[in-house]
Q: What sequence folds into this?
């Protein structure tokens, strides 16, 4: 990730050196996409190019189809955006995309009988369930915000951004280990049915809210 950040900043620096009336800023942010670093390149009074590197690790507890899962968000993304400042001040309209791994891991060890794919199984038959909710690697983004990095007198700027990254319905995979039926073909089919039911439950995850606060330094 460090190498990627350096490469991103270097690319913006080279772009800035080749154009006039431009400025560069670097900064850090935190929000629903995790914590990250970014670089900005100003192109005149209205347009700003922005590149970001974000990482999110967040534990969750969710219940799907009556089964309690513990899990974690594991997002590792880069982003490229165009911020438009239509009034020449801090207000901005942003558009671009996030690229990279966006996965949610799931794990459960039932202690009571559970319904899997329409059939009830005992804990000894099920063993430990492991799953992944995989969002698409590419997620277009649109949002609104405020960034006064290039409009205030001092070198420090504040940024607040809210929007949504959207993609198709996530893909869900589910497996079992340590149970008496973990390697049973029929039970595997029931796990596939259960994964499809979870996929229906997480359809809304394709719309991922993005809320960020950041602090930038202008060169």
A:
């Amino acid at each position: 990730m460090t190498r990627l950040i350096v490469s991103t900043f270097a690319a913006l620096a080279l772009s800035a050196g080749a154009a006039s009336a431009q400025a560069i800023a670097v900064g850090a942010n935190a929000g629903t996409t995790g914590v990250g670093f970014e670089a900005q390149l100003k192109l005149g009074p209205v347009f700003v190019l922005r590149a970001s590197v974000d990482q999110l690790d967040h534990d969750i507890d969710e219940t799907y189809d009556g089964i309690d899962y513990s899990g974690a968000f594991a997002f590792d993304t880069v982003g490229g955006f165009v911020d438009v400042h239509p009034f020449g001040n801090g207000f901005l309209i942003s558009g671009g995309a996030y690229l990279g791994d966006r996965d949610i891991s799931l794990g459960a060890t039932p202690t009571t009988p559970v319904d899997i794919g329409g059939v009830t199984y005992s804990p000894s038959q099920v063993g430990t369930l492991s799953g992944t909710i995989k969002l698409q690697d590419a997620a277009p983004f649109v949002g609104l915000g405020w960034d006064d990095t290039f409009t205030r007198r001092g070198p420090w700027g504040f940024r607040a951004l809210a929007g949504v990254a959207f993609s198709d319905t996530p893909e869900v995979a589910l497996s079992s280990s340590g149970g008496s039926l973990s390697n049973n073909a029929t039970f595997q089919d029931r796990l596939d049915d259960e994964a499809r039911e979870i996929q229906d439950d997480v359809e809304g995850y394709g719309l991922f809210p993005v809320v960020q606060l950041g602090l930038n330094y202008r060169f």
